[in-house]
Amino acid sequence: ELLPPSDPAARAAVARLDQPTQRATGERNGFAILWSWQRPFDPAGRERVLTEDRERIDAAGARGEAVAPEALARAALPAAELPAAALCGPPPASCLERVRADPAALAGALAALAGPIAALEDLAVADHLANPFRPTTRTPLPPVQGIGNVLSSRSALRHVQGDAEGAITLACRDLATWRRLRSRTDVLVLDAFAVGVAQQQALLLGE
Prior knowledge:
Strand content: under 5%
Helix content: 55-70%
Shape: elongated
Protein backbone atom coordinates (compact mmCIF):
# COMPACT_ATOMS: atom_id res chain seq x y z
CA GLU A 1 0.00 0.00 0.00
CA LEU A 2 2.74 2.47 0.95
CA LEU A 3 5.37 1.50 -1.63
CA PRO A 4 3.63 0.14 -4.75
CA PRO A 5 5.67 -1.86 -7.28
CA SER A 6 7.42 0.49 -9.66
CA ASP A 7 7.86 -1.67 -12.77
CA PRO A 8 6.02 -4.48 -14.59
CA ALA A 9 8.34 -7.21 -13.30
CA ALA A 10 7.83 -6.15 -9.68
CA ARG A 11 4.07 -5.89 -10.17
CA ALA A 12 4.00 -9.41 -11.64
CA ALA A 13 5.99 -10.76 -8.69
CA VAL A 14 3.60 -9.16 -6.20
CA ALA A 15 0.61 -10.51 -8.12
CA ARG A 16 1.96 -14.05 -7.74
CA LEU A 17 2.27 -13.52 -4.00
CA ASP A 18 -1.14 -11.88 -3.63
CA GLN A 19 -3.15 -15.04 -3.13
CA PRO A 20 -6.19 -15.44 -0.88
CA THR A 21 -5.49 -17.06 2.45
CA GLN A 22 -6.07 -20.79 2.66
CA ARG A 23 -6.61 -20.71 6.41
CA ALA A 24 -9.71 -18.51 6.79
CA THR A 25 -12.11 -20.80 4.98
CA GLY A 26 -15.21 -22.67 6.05
CA GLU A 27 -18.97 -22.49 6.11
CA ARG A 28 -19.61 -20.28 9.15
CA ASN A 29 -17.59 -17.06 9.38
CA GLY A 30 -17.69 -15.63 12.90
CA PHE A 31 -16.34 -12.18 11.99
CA ALA A 32 -19.77 -10.51 12.07
CA ILE A 33 -20.27 -11.72 15.64
CA LEU A 34 -16.97 -10.24 16.77
CA TRP A 35 -17.69 -7.00 14.94
CA SER A 36 -20.74 -6.19 17.08
CA TRP A 37 -20.80 -8.68 19.96
CA GLN A 38 -21.27 -5.96 22.62
CA ARG A 39 -24.34 -4.53 20.87
CA PRO A 40 -27.90 -5.97 20.86
CA PHE A 41 -28.15 -7.00 17.20
CA ASP A 42 -29.78 -10.25 16.14
CA PRO A 43 -27.83 -12.53 13.75
CA ALA A 44 -29.33 -10.91 10.64
CA GLY A 45 -28.60 -7.47 12.06
CA ARG A 46 -24.96 -8.39 12.65
CA GLU A 47 -24.51 -9.36 9.02
CA ARG A 48 -26.28 -6.25 7.78
CA VAL A 49 -24.20 -3.97 10.00
CA LEU A 50 -20.96 -5.62 8.92
CA THR A 51 -21.90 -5.25 5.25
CA GLU A 52 -22.74 -1.57 5.66
CA ASP A 53 -19.58 -0.88 7.66
CA ARG A 54 -17.43 -2.72 5.14
CA GLU A 55 -18.79 -0.54 2.35
CA ARG A 56 -18.19 2.65 4.34
CA ILE A 57 -14.72 1.67 5.51
CA ASP A 58 -13.55 0.40 2.14
CA ALA A 59 -14.82 3.52 0.37
CA ALA A 60 -13.10 5.77 2.89
CA GLY A 61 -9.91 3.74 2.64
CA ALA A 62 -9.89 4.16 -1.14
CA ARG A 63 -9.93 7.92 -0.53
CA GLY A 64 -7.11 7.64 2.01
CA GLU A 65 -9.46 8.44 4.89
CA ALA A 66 -10.69 6.71 8.01
CA VAL A 67 -14.27 6.32 9.26
CA ALA A 68 -14.99 7.77 12.69
CA PRO A 69 -16.32 5.13 15.13
CA GLU A 70 -19.55 7.05 15.67
CA ALA A 71 -20.22 7.01 11.91
CA LEU A 72 -20.23 3.22 11.69
CA ALA A 73 -23.51 1.36 11.25
CA ARG A 74 -22.87 -0.69 14.38
CA ALA A 75 -22.92 2.56 16.39
CA ALA A 76 -26.70 2.67 15.86
CA LEU A 77 -27.01 0.62 19.06
CA PRO A 78 -24.96 1.35 22.21
CA ALA A 79 -22.23 -1.03 23.29
CA ALA A 80 -22.56 -2.79 26.63
CA GLU A 81 -20.00 -1.65 29.18
CA LEU A 82 -17.72 -4.34 30.59
CA PRO A 83 -17.48 -3.95 34.39
CA ALA A 84 -13.77 -4.58 34.82
CA ALA A 85 -14.00 -4.31 38.61
CA ALA A 86 -16.36 -7.29 38.81
CA LEU A 87 -14.92 -9.50 36.07
CA CYS A 88 -11.89 -11.75 36.24
CA GLY A 89 -8.71 -10.19 35.00
CA PRO A 90 -6.12 -11.69 32.65
CA PRO A 91 -3.63 -14.28 33.89
CA PRO A 92 -1.70 -14.78 36.09
CA ALA A 93 -4.38 -13.40 38.45
CA SER A 94 -6.57 -16.17 39.88
CA CYS A 95 -10.05 -16.02 38.41
CA LEU A 96 -11.55 -18.28 41.07
CA GLU A 97 -10.16 -16.15 43.89
CA ARG A 98 -11.63 -13.06 42.27
CA VAL A 99 -15.06 -14.66 41.95
CA ARG A 100 -15.06 -16.14 45.46
CA ALA A 101 -14.36 -12.70 46.88
CA ASP A 102 -17.73 -11.35 45.66
CA PRO A 103 -19.84 -13.80 43.64
CA ALA A 104 -22.98 -11.68 44.01
CA ALA A 105 -21.36 -8.70 42.30
CA LEU A 106 -20.19 -10.89 39.43
CA ALA A 107 -23.60 -12.53 39.08
CA GLY A 108 -25.17 -9.09 38.68
CA ALA A 109 -22.54 -8.00 36.18
CA LEU A 110 -22.98 -11.11 34.06
CA ALA A 111 -26.76 -10.76 34.12
CA ALA A 112 -26.34 -7.29 32.60
CA LEU A 113 -24.12 -8.84 29.92
CA ALA A 114 -26.60 -11.54 28.88
CA GLY A 115 -26.80 -10.23 25.31
CA PRO A 116 -23.06 -10.05 24.66
CA ILE A 117 -22.55 -13.46 26.28
CA ALA A 118 -25.21 -14.95 24.00
CA ALA A 119 -23.37 -13.48 21.01
CA LEU A 120 -20.10 -15.05 22.15
CA GLU A 121 -21.86 -18.38 22.56
CA ASP A 122 -22.78 -18.21 18.87
CA LEU A 123 -19.06 -18.36 18.09
CA ALA A 124 -19.11 -21.98 19.27
CA VAL A 125 -20.52 -22.97 15.86
CA ALA A 126 -18.27 -20.65 13.81
CA ASP A 127 -15.47 -22.42 11.97
CA HIS A 128 -13.34 -19.48 10.80
CA LEU A 129 -12.72 -15.73 11.06
CA ALA A 130 -12.31 -14.15 7.63
CA ASN A 131 -11.72 -10.40 7.48
CA PRO A 132 -14.12 -8.89 4.90
CA PHE A 133 -12.41 -5.50 4.79
CA ARG A 134 -9.89 -4.30 2.26
CA PRO A 135 -6.63 -4.44 4.26
CA THR A 136 -5.10 -1.01 4.80
CA THR A 137 -3.33 0.75 7.64
CA ARG A 138 -6.67 2.41 8.51
CA THR A 139 -8.81 -0.73 8.65
CA PRO A 140 -10.25 -1.12 12.18
CA LEU A 141 -10.23 -4.36 14.10
CA PRO A 142 -13.20 -5.91 15.93
CA PRO A 143 -13.55 -4.86 19.60
CA VAL A 144 -12.18 -8.03 21.16
CA GLN A 145 -10.85 -6.62 24.43
CA GLY A 146 -12.42 -8.25 27.47
CA ILE A 147 -13.81 -11.37 25.79
CA GLY A 148 -11.54 -13.76 27.66
CA ASN A 149 -12.38 -12.11 30.99
CA VAL A 150 -16.13 -12.39 30.34
CA LEU A 151 -15.88 -16.07 29.40
CA SER A 152 -13.63 -16.97 32.33
CA SER A 153 -15.87 -15.09 34.77
CA ARG A 154 -18.96 -16.95 33.58
CA SER A 155 -17.34 -20.38 33.96
CA ALA A 156 -15.76 -19.52 37.32
CA LEU A 157 -19.08 -18.28 38.72
CA ARG A 158 -20.75 -21.52 37.66
CA HIS A 159 -18.07 -23.43 39.60
CA VAL A 160 -18.32 -21.24 42.70
CA GLN A 161 -22.10 -21.66 42.67
CA GLY A 162 -21.65 -25.43 42.92
CA ASP A 163 -21.91 -26.62 39.31
CA ALA A 164 -18.36 -27.85 38.75
CA GLU A 165 -19.31 -30.10 35.85
CA GLY A 166 -21.15 -27.30 34.07
CA ALA A 167 -18.22 -24.95 34.64
CA ILE A 168 -15.75 -27.41 33.14
CA THR A 169 -18.03 -27.96 30.15
CA LEU A 170 -18.22 -24.22 29.46
CA ALA A 171 -14.48 -23.66 29.81
CA CYS A 172 -13.68 -26.65 27.59
CA ARG A 173 -16.09 -25.43 24.93
CA ASP A 174 -14.62 -21.92 25.01
CA LEU A 175 -11.08 -23.30 24.82
CA ALA A 176 -12.00 -25.46 21.82
CA THR A 177 -13.79 -22.54 20.11
CA TRP A 178 -10.87 -20.14 20.30
CA ARG A 179 -8.30 -22.80 19.52
CA ARG A 180 -10.26 -23.58 16.34
CA LEU A 181 -10.73 -19.94 15.36
CA ARG A 182 -7.08 -18.98 15.89
CA SER A 183 -5.99 -21.63 13.39
CA ARG A 184 -8.50 -20.47 10.77
CA THR A 185 -8.20 -16.71 10.47
CA ASP A 186 -6.49 -14.34 8.05
CA VAL A 187 -5.89 -11.65 10.69
CA LEU A 188 -2.66 -12.07 12.65
CA VAL A 189 -3.95 -9.98 15.57
CA LEU A 190 -7.00 -12.22 15.92
CA ASP A 191 -4.77 -15.29 15.79
CA ALA A 192 -2.68 -13.96 18.67
CA PHE A 193 -5.73 -12.80 20.61
CA ALA A 194 -7.47 -16.16 20.26
CA VAL A 195 -4.36 -17.93 21.56
CA GLY A 196 -4.59 -15.74 24.67
CA VAL A 197 -8.28 -16.55 25.21
CA ALA A 198 -7.64 -20.28 24.83
CA GLN A 199 -4.75 -20.11 27.29
CA GLN A 200 -6.95 -18.22 29.74
CA GLN A 201 -9.52 -21.02 29.64
CA ALA A 202 -6.83 -23.67 30.06
CA LEU A 203 -5.50 -21.91 33.17
CA LEU A 204 -9.00 -21.68 34.59
CA LEU A 205 -9.51 -25.39 34.01
CA GLY A 206 -6.28 -25.99 35.91
CA GLU A 207 -7.62 -24.01 38.86
